[in-house]
Amino acid sequence: MIGRIHSVETFGTVDGPGIRFILFMQGCALKCQYCHNRDTWSLNDGKEMTIEEVLSEIESYLPYYRSSGGGLTVSGGEPTLQGPFVKELFRQVKERWDLHTTLDTNGVNEVTKLADLYDLTDLVLLDIKHINNEKHMSLTGVPNTRTLETARWLSDHGKKMWIRHVFVPTINDAEEDLLELGRFIGSLQGVEKVDILPYHQMGVYKWEHLGEKYPLEGVPSPTPEEVERAQRLIDQGRKEAVQNKQ
Ligand code: SF4
């Protein structure tokens, strides 16, 4: 089986627990205005790799992943666009080495069609880009309905999740949106962590390289105080949701 791969990282430390092999898959159907991996969008780019080739790269560093409680993370792009490849890869790393598996996804592909893949996934890093559907549409080009359905399905099926939210001043910093995001997260089971990722401009050169205008030109990164405020509002929303359940 062959996958289209954008790149690999052998010592990842933020995309799941421990030290991890990160496989960045090529291809994404969203058009996030802040995308720092603009060069992953096309499904025709990247390089072709077989499962066996990926496994042999992982094997070289296996002792580090094992001794640190780490494993394999598949990210992108959007890895579920190549769901059968990722599923087979996860199946094999589990069968050979019983390795911990993490899937980093925007949750937009229909979750019920990916149940077999999620069954082989120990942890899902789920990106919720905007809780407000209209604003999600203008930020990414698609509604957030499927992402929220994925979150609910994962919650109902006892899966572990880290929710990720790229926080962008002027785009998703409204008080009501952050509270609402918190309320939604608070209504889920299995959320082990909520990561607020401060927006940065490090991927702008990739848009320029492709001859494209960067959509968020002039939008600044958030200050530490702004990130703290976002965290506080999300926490408050989570608490409200928990209190409402009691
Ligand atoms: S989902 Fe990720 S890779 Fe796809 S456009 Fe958005 S930020 Fe970029």
TrEMBL record:
EC number of the protein: 1.97.1.4
Comment on bound cofactor: Binds 1 [4Fe-4S] cluster. The cluster is coordinated with 3 cysteines and an exchangeable S-adenosyl-L-methionine.
Catalytic activity: glycyl-[formate C-acetyltransferase] + reduced [flavodoxin] + S-adenosyl-L-methionine = glycin-2-yl radical-[formate C-acetyltransferase] + semiquinone [flavodoxin] + 5'-deoxyadenosine + L-methionine + H(+)
Location in the cell: Cytoplasm
Alphabetized Pfam families for the sequence: Radical_SAM (PF04055)
Family to which the UniProt record says this protein belongs: Belongs to the organic radical-activating enzymes family.
Protein name: Pyruvate formate-lyase-activating enzyme
Species of origin: Paenibacillus apiarius
Gene from which the chain derives: pflA
